[in-house]
Design a protein that fits this description.
Blueprint (H helix, E strand, L loop, with lengths): L7 H8 L12 E11 L10 E4 L4 E11 L2 E5 L5 E3 L2 E3 L11 E9 L3 E3 L13 E5 L8 E3 L15 E11 L2 E4 L19 E6 L4 H5 L7 E3 L19 H11 L17 E8 L5 E2 L14 E4 L2 E7 L12 E4 L6 E4 L10 E5 L4
Parallel strand pairs: 2-13, 8-14
Antiparallel strand pairs: 1-3, 3-4, 3-10, 5-6, 7-9, 7-11, 11-12, 11-13, 15-16, 15-21, 17-18, 17-21, 18-19, 19-20
Length: about 350
């Protein structure tokens, strides 16, 4: 049954109107976890979450207490699932006096490279812990994926990682944070750092928004496609960004670079910009704005069509693309992409 989300002192007062912090049950905190749930039903668990923007995601603190020979878990919800095991929890009134605090674990850089040393190597992504405002003492809170250390291009969509700390009796315990590195084959963090990804919707563009808030990584990579940095929502270069969305749609597309994209997507048109910003083919005819989700392939760069602006029905430099380029993913007019004066190809992914 759901339990009210209240500060711990208030919970104690509900149990006993005259209770003070010193009256809380004694016991030792031996472990803490973050569990979460998409929606309002079902047992919260410790696995990474993906949700649509219209689906609430709630983070819950789960604290393991040892009192004498007894060990039990307190949380707002019961049961919860940790490491695949279903656990019946106790109410917070069964906890000692605790101080809870929550952090985001977020990238501190919007742009980085796996080749900064002159040769390829997985560079460690610079993550920082930033306190979540007004979250102190809360035993549950809504997942907010908006970044604070890099530009917020998503306005509520993207990926964020979280950390919980609990202080009791002068001792502080924290869930995994910036130190929980994957090691070889990645510059990112393990799934022990609780991760939530929120997308706009279930379209191709919607799936791409799961990478909002993550850095542009020049030469993003993985030892396999399944362990690619984009697959782990650590970041992406321009080509891996557009491939990620296709894979989320169920397409069997490998991570690759821009020159290889025509092997996996059909070329619809080719052309160059003229003096008024309209893209024209070899015959001088204006290229049509095909449809949202088609790829605009430049020499060594790629973006995804988002909106027909400028001259309606015509592909021109006023049209909006979504891309990743020296910044976290965002939407820009083609004229502001830095590639508007170059030839383009229009590509379309197969339906599957």
């Amino acid at each position: 049954m759901p339990r009210p989300v209240l500060a711990l002192a208030a919970l104690a007062a509900l149990a006993c109107p005259d209770a003070h912090a010193d009256d809380a049950p004694t016991g030792d905190v031996i472990a803490i976890h973050i569990v979460s749930r998409v929606g309002t039903t079902g047992a919260p668990d410790d696995r990474p979450k993906r949700a649509r923007e219209d689906q609430p995601v709630t983070l819950f603190a789960a604290v393991t207490i040892r009192r004498g020979k007894d060990t039990y878990v307190v949380a707002d919800e019961s049961p919860i699932v940790i490491d695949g095991k279903k656990i019946t929890t106790h109410a917070w009134t069964d906890a000692p006096s605790l101080a809870l605090a929550w952090n985001r674990i977020e990238p501190a850089v919007a742009d980085m490279s796996n080749t900064s040393s002159g040769q390829f190597a997985f560079e460690a992504i610079d993550y920082r812990a930033t306190a979540i405002a007004n979250a102190a003492g809360k035993t549950a809170l809504a997942a907010d994926v908006r970044p604070t250390l890099t530009p917020d291009h998503g306005g509520g969509v993207g990926t964020m990682r979280y950390q919980l700390s609990v202080t009791a009796g002068g001792k502080t315990i924290t869930t995994p944070g910036t130190e929980a590195r994957r090691g070889r084959g990645s510059g990112g963090l393990t799934d022990a750092v609780h991760r939530v990804s929120i997308r706009r919707d279930d379209t191709y563009l919607g799936y791409l928004t799961e990478l909002y808030g993550q850095p542009y990584i020049w030469a993003s990579a993985g030892t396999t496609d399944a362990t690619h940095q984009s697959e782990r929502l650590e970041g992406a270069d321009c080509a891996d960004f557009v491939v990620y969305g296709a894979r989320r749609m169920g397409m069997k597309v490998p991570y690759t670079w821009t020159a290889e994209l025509p092997r996996y997507a059909k070329t619809l048109a080719k052309g160059e910009p003229d003096g008024d910003g309209v893209y024209r083919d070899a015959h001088g005819d204006a290229i049509a704005f095909t449809r949202v989700g088609d790829l605009i392939l430049f020499p060594r760069h790629v973006g995804v069509l988002v909106e027909d602006r400028g001259t309606r029905g015509v592909l021109d430099d006023q049209d909006i693309i979504m891309h990743a380029l020296f910044d976290t993913p965002k939407e820009v007019a083609i004229k502001d992409s830095g590639y508007d004066n170059l030839p383009i190809s229009v590509l379309r992914w197969p339906t599957r």
